[in-house]
Backbone:
């Protein structure tokens, strides 16, 4: 039962860094947060591209040219990896929250599954996009 | 004997000062992500790679405009919650409050601007 002590409550320490060896559980967790914040980037890019398309040929030509260069392709690939990774990471939170897969071993497997799954999905996305635009 | 209920004891706690509400909304929008992320990636992705006329025609389609609007609103709302949780963890005091306001404002600016861009093309 929760206590009524509202002032002197223990805080969980920040352990990643010099105090604690990096592990798949901690790294896969912090990456969920990093990919969420990084997703602002792809939203900004998408909005700039749409606004350029709505504005003029010159604006669209410039923004579209950047996004379709090799640098743009790389950026979009990384962003799609981040989106897929975040989706899988959040799926893990939902599974945990409903009370399943809380054992350490299965948690570690899910951590690796997020990295591998996001990479597979990002590569598949790139292949499907390359075929679609050919 | 304590006359406080368990719910009352939990009220207003947590890093965000909102009990478990923040956590629950993150879980709810996480379930939504399972639909939003694939839809956003493929519906948006297939619209890229054409001439400006093709792009405008594609994004003016009602299905595309509606799906992307929903993805934009719920997606930004979700990453806003994620970012606010990070701010609550690492930035404290008045600086933390101002950072939270800035993140929230930026998120709504993106939702507004994105919806404007979609509407501009759709109508």
Residues:
């Amino acid at each position: 039962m929760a206590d009524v002590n509202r002032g002197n409550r223990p805080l969980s320490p920040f352990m990643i860094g010099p105090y604690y060896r990096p592990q798949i559980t901690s790294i896969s967790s912090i990456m969920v947060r990093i990919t969420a914040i990084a997703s602002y980037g792809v939203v900004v890019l998408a909005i700039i591209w749409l606004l350029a398309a709505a504005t003029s040929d010159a604006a669209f030509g410039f923004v579209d040219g950047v996004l379709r260069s090799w640098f743009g392709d790389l950026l979009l690939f990384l962003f799609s990896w981040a989106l897929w990774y975040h989706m899988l990471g959040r799926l893990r939170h939902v599974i945990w929250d409903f009370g399943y897969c809380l054992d350490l071993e299965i948690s570690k497997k899910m951590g690796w599954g997020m990295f591998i799954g996001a990479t597979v999905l990002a590569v598949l996305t790139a292949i499907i996009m390359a075929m679609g635009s050919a | 004997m304590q006359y406080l209920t368990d719910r009352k004891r939990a009220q207003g706690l947590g890093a965000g000062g909102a009990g478990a509400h923040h956590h629950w909304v993150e879980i709810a929008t996480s379930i939504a992500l399972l639909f939003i992320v694939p839809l956003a990636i493929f519906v948006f992705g297939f619209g890229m790679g054409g001439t400006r006329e093709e792009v405008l025609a594609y994004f003016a389609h009602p299905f595309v405009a509606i799906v992307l609007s929903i993805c934009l609103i719920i997606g930004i709302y979700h990453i806003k919650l994620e970012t606010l949780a990070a701010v609550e963890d690492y930035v404290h005091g008045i600086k933390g409050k101002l950072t939270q306001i800035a993140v929230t404002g930026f998120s709504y600016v993106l939702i507004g601007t994105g919806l404007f861009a979609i509407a501009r093309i759709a109508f």
Remarks:
- Chain B has a mean pLDDT of 92.
- DSSP finds five helices and no strands in chain B.
- Residues 6-122 of chain B form a domain with the 3 helical TM bundles of succinate and fumarate reductases fold (CATH 1.20.1300).
